[in-house]
Amino acid sequence: MEKLLSVCLGIGLSAACGFRVFIPLLAISIASLSGQLTLSDGFQWIGTYPALVVFATASIMEIAAYYIPLFDNLMDSIAGPAAVVAGILVAASSITHMEPLLKWSLVLIAGGGTAAIFHGSTVLARGTSTALTGGIGNHAVATAELGISAGLSILAIALPLLSIFVILALLFFIRKGLRKLVKSKRTEARSA
Fold first, then answer.
1. What is the Rg, in whole angstroms, of the alpha carbon atoms belonging to the chain?
2. Which helix (H) or strand (E) holds 93?
3. What's the pLDDT tens digit per position in 133-179?
4. How many domains does the chain have?
5. Is 173 exposed, middle or buried (0-12, 13-18, 19+ CB in 10 A)?
6. Cα–Cα distances in angstroms (integers) from residue 129 to residues 140, 156, 169, in the given order
């Protein structure tokens, strides 16, 4: 059961990295320092005070950057690879008591893949918002992403199994939104 919970924790935190890169890292640093989370061997540095300061500073800068018009779209292109790396890092740091081959296979596929999927959805949401509102609506998108990242990080640490159900629900809504977008594009193409 402990392995399952650590995998759920890793995937939950990886998904949160797709919305904001540094918020989940800040969350696990705080959880580790407060004794609520045991980090995997080789990743104890995340639970140190210097790391906490770095993650807090990076989180503040990242949050602020997403509220600057046009710069937020640039941040999406930079944050794409960073989200995947962060997803791998948080999954690797939280998955404990597992054989290395299985752990790293899960970390790369589930951790990096989950972060990539959710980051892709945020890029699509911000791009749609920019196209429809000229960037004015991007503040709402940035606020929603921040809330989801923080909430999912806390949920993954407190109730890792429940975080998987939230992730599945989010994936359902993303899939539904993509289908709707594709359907509207097909309708526009037929009418043109």
1. 17
2. helix 71-94
3. 888 888 999 999 999 999 999 999 999 999 999 999 999 998 888 88
4. 1
5. exposed
6. 9, 28, 22
